[in-house]
Amino acid sequence: MYSWIEVLLYLTILELEGSDLDTSYSIRLPALKTLLLDRVGFKQNDGMFKFVLGCPSLEKLMVLNLVHQLRLQSTSLKFIQLGYRANIEPIQIEAINLESLILNGFIFENSNLSACKAIKNLSIVLAEYNFEDPSSLEDLISYFPHLENLTLDCDELTLENIKISNQQLRSLDLENCGYYSETDYRMVNVTVLAPKLTSFCYKGNISLTIVVESSDLLNGELVILDRPKKYDANWFTRMMNFL
Ligand SMILES: *[C@@H]1O[C@H](CO)[C@@H](O)[C@H](O)[C@H]1NC(C)=O
Ligand SMILES: *[C@@H]1O[C@H](CO)[C@@H](O)[C@H](O)[C@H]1NC(C)=O
Ligand SMILES: *[C@@H]1O[C@H](CO)[C@@H](O)[C@H](O)[C@H]1NC(C)=O
Ligand SMILES: *[C@@H]1O[C@H](CO)[C@@H](O)[C@H](O)[C@H]1NC(C)=O
Ligand SMILES: *[C@@H]1O[C@H](CO)[C@@H](O)[C@H](O)[C@H]1NC(C)=O
């Protein structure tokens, strides 16, 4: 007897929404290249792991509203996007050809991305409840030997000091770091150590100071988007400190 999924030999794109998958059947989707799972649960703990193992051509994986701990092993995956819903869990990804990783709300502790050495694009949205010690984030960023583009969205999380250090990094996008309102603002100090950096972009309020050390940034671009309600003296001072 075959399960419905076993006959889908030629499927290249699969999108599943709001279902519960039973992976006690063997899963074999040899042609699948793109998989999108939104609010999908698995009846078995290792369900996702088995599912991905059964997709040897999979290049692009998007998992939205993930509820499980995620463990993956794949040599074909090039792009992974993960978005967690409520209870954030660590992730273990072993994907040696992965080039782009987008993480939205994710826990660093007990996560293991050490096999993903080929990552060139990394995008992280931080979340308050999973973030205590910035050193785990700093270690992660400095680890990837081929990282070119980094996007870090602090999601208004009040980090105090953060050091972004990577030898290969060319482009850095920071978003929503620091916090600013009419009555209160908290400074964030960002130190960037990236000798090959040529592009830096900041989106958000200017409640941070940035020190960029030893880079080619003078040849690059600097984009600052700031939309304060009032352009007062304080704002101006912060702007000058920022530049
Ligand atoms: C992380 O994963 C790699 C394999 O991808 C493994 O060799 C290593 O032992 C793991 N590290 C930890 C701390 O579990
Ligand atoms: C990094 O970003 C730039 C601009 O967004 C893009 O042109 C370039 O291809 C990216 N690098 C990689 C490895 O994707
Ligand atoms: C990396 O991200 C940039 C935009 O930030 C995009 O243009 C590029 O295609 C991405 N590269 C890969 C390999 O996904
Ligand atoms: C950030 O740097 C400013 C100026 O150098 C300093 O006054 C402030 O205390 C620093 N903030 C933190 C959280 O270390
Ligand atoms: C930026 O400032 C506006 C108004 O002053 C405020 O509503 C918003 O929450 C601030 N954003 C951040 C990231 O601090």
UniProtKB/TrEMBL annotation:
The keyword Nucleotidyltransferase does not apply. It comes from Cannabis sativa. It comes from the Eukaryota. It holds the Pfam family LRR_At5g56370. Residues 1-18 form the signal peptide. Keywords: Signal. Residues 10-111 form the F-box/LRR-repeat protein 15/At3g58940/PEG3-like LRR domain. The lineage of its organism: Eukaryota, Viridiplantae, Streptophyta, Embryophyta, Tracheophyta. This is F-box/LRR-repeat protein 15/At3g58940/PEG3-like LRR domain-containing protein. InterPro entries: At1g61320/At1g61330-like (IPR053772), LRR_dom_sf (IPR032675), LRR_FXL15/At3g58940/PEG3-like (IPR055411).
